[in-house]
Design goal:
This protein is mostly beta strands and 147 residues long. It folds into two domains: 1-32, no CATH class; 36-143, Immunoglobulin-like. The chain is built from two helices and seven strands. The chain has a four-stranded antiparallel sheet with strand order 1-7-4-5. A hairpin with a 2-residue loop joins strand 2 and strand 3. It is elongated, with a radius of gyration of 20 Å. The two termini are 29 Å apart.
Length: 147
């Protein structure tokens, strides 16, 4: 089995192992931080997206933590929507695309961090339309650090 080595996967595997072999768990040895994925309807309450700029395929901005907990794995949805010069006669090759980008830094309560995403592969340069790029926060993990 080839699982990604994220803290969430590690915590889940640890919990399953301890459930199968409870004798392995001693409170002095085991530390699993209390974390939870925030439901999508609460995303706007915990993190603010500010000062977003788009220059070609480079998207940057600032994320501000408006919650009282440490945030990590802030997930952005970056959409590059192609707008045809003539919407009445669109072409057949629509280069629109979307990507989920996870910001690697943790953000302390009341803190902020800058992010920069470079589109890879680069957006094509074309004369039959242009890209409208949008960014929104679609998820994050709250960490409370309990022992």
């Amino acid at each position: 089995m080839n699982l990604p080595c994220t803290p969430r996967v590690i915590a889940t595997l640890l919990a399953v192992g301890l459930a199968i072999h409870p004798g392995l768990a001693r409170s002095a040895d085991v530390f699993v931080s209390a974390e939870r994925v925030v439901p999508s309807e609460r995303v706007a309450e915990g993190v603010a997206l500010r000062d977003v700029t788009v220059d070609g395929g480079v998207v940057s901005g600032v994320l501000a933590n408006t919650s009282g907990k440490v945030l990590r794995d802030v997930q952005l949805l970056i959409q590059h929507d192609w707008r045809w010069r003539s919407e009445f006669r669109p072409g057949e090759d629509n280069p629109s695309r979307a990507v989920y980008y996870v910001v690697p830094e943790e953000i302390p309560p009341g803190g902020q961090t800058k992010f920069t995403y470079r589109t890879d592969p680069p957006l094509p340069e074309r004369s039959d339309g242009h890209f409208d790029t949008s960014v929104r926060v679609v998820g994050f993990v709250e960490v409370s650090g309990a022992r």
